[in-house]
Amino acid sequence: MRAKATGMPVGTVVMAVLVESTPSTAPPDRAPAGTAIRFEVYRQGVRLMKFSPVAAMPMGPESVPISGDIHFRDGLLILDRGEDHAAGLSLLWDIGPLGAFELETTRLPPREKPYILNVELARARLMKIVQKLEDWNLFDFPRVEKYTSRFREAQALFADALGLLHDGPAASVLGDQTLAMAVDLSEQLAVFHADLLINRRRSANTFVKHIFGARVDTTIQNQAYRDKLVGNFDYAVLPMSWGELQPQEQEFRTEVLDHWVETLALRRVPIIAGPLIDLNNAPDWLFVFEHDFDSLRELAYEFVQKVIHRYRKAVSVWNVAAGLPTNSAFTLSFEQIIEMTRLLVSQVKNSIPNARVIVTVTHPFGEYHARPKTSVPPMLYAEMIAQAGINFEAFGLEVEMGVPTPGGFARDLFQLSCMLDRFSTLGRPLFITAATAPGRNTPDASDRSGGKLDPSLAGRWHRPWDLQLQADWMEQFYRVCLSKPFVESVAWGNLADMNPSLPSGGMMDDLLQPKPVFERLKQMREKFHSWHVKKP
């Protein structure tokens, strides 16, 4: 059943193959088996009778994680949501030399006959490529022919796999080959598209002056640490943790932060302050009010009022809230989440009418929404506050990749580019307030987890993490980010390996010696600054 070349557009051909062949009902001779969606899992053509899925979660429409039970039993990977509705499956999947990434299937209806996971993962990636070729207007672009030719090869290989669904081992081998080809192709497309848009932004002179920043650890009182920041970055992301500034309800400690703010203000380094309210990192004493929203709101109001009054003259941008929709620590209703966001933004605006205010999305892939606990998908939250008349200027976004935490499992450049595109319709600029990847593939006892984070368990981007790969990832991810017309700036998540958020996540080591990622950023900064022309 190899697909024949036709004169039809590649998108038309492949959508016919992918959509029409996607099972929508159970075979007529077999009745649906309850609510379970079953998968056979193969490795190198051999069916696995033992398999432990990693980072597995059910997926709903628009690639939003949803709750459900996933387990492997009797040689089948079973997804059961207790509902007779179509759902997809996402999990960490090894595709050989290209890497191991969090990948997902299309949404599939429950049926008696198991699906072949290898084939369904390939189907989903091919469909996503078609969608992005359309979104990015690349179908008829002159220089994209080599990619569309490669895509036709993947399409034909996938068609062969569909013709062998009765032979699981053979179909799985072709599915694996299709998936590897599609992931490689999609990353190449993401890089090509990024280069294309960067050149357009450069020609239009739409890059801002302050592009490259770094998030600092305010608890580090080291003059050399401060000097490295001031001399090598355009701005600083200055966390203002509620727990550190107000460790007790009636206690307000600002000495450490005061020193940082004073230093940056004297050196005229722009400051993005916050997030001010991140309930996932709230002070311990606040949990007494876990089920008292009125008191929680008032306490948050009082804290923010003190902070903005103290630092209003030094801060350029206020990051007022982060992680509210996750409900990881506090359980708020959807209405309360929106109300809290509105209150915090209004509070800053009432005190400083000309202030620039951002609201941060901390888990853009929304893995937290797969938990049974009440939460709000990240893009639904973003869309709601963008449409609710809340007067803020931009969204913030945190992306930490390469560690086994929700949101931290490895994803390829194509997936990251697609995620960023979701913000394009919200009508607000986007600040990447923390982008980070590990510089080693082993745990680091000196990071904030105390050595609990093992990057080797979170997949890999092409190869196991090392210092050079960290630099490569930074450069490619930054270029993808800055190719988006709505992305204003990007900040690295750890200035140095001094209490980093993930293993060897800093741009410098613990002795403040530059790492390859630092040198690479320095080169990028010089290049982008040379492009910036001051507007009249």
Walk me through what this model shows.
There is one protein chain. This protein is α/β, with parallel strands linked by helices and 536 residues long. The chain has two domains: 10-197, no CATH class; 203-531, Glycosidases (TIM Barrel, Alpha-Beta Barrel). The protein is built from 13 helices and 18 strands. It has helices at residues 10-20, 117-135, 145-162, 168-204, 223-232, 242-245, 255-266, 293-311, 334-351, 378-387, 413-421, 467-483, 516-531, and strands at residues 36-40, 42-43, 46-47, 57-59, 69-73, 76-80, 88-94, 99-104, 115-116, 212-215, 235-238, 271-273, 317-322, 356-361, 394-400, 430-436, 460-461, 487-492. It has an eight-stranded parallel barrel with strand order 10-11-12-13-14-15-16-18. Helix 2 (117-135) runs antiparallel to helix 3 (145-162). The longest helix has 37 residues, at 168-204. The model is unreliable at 1-17 and 19-32 (pLDDT under 50).
What's the short version?
This protein is an alpha/beta fold and 536 residues long. It has 13 helices and 18 strands.
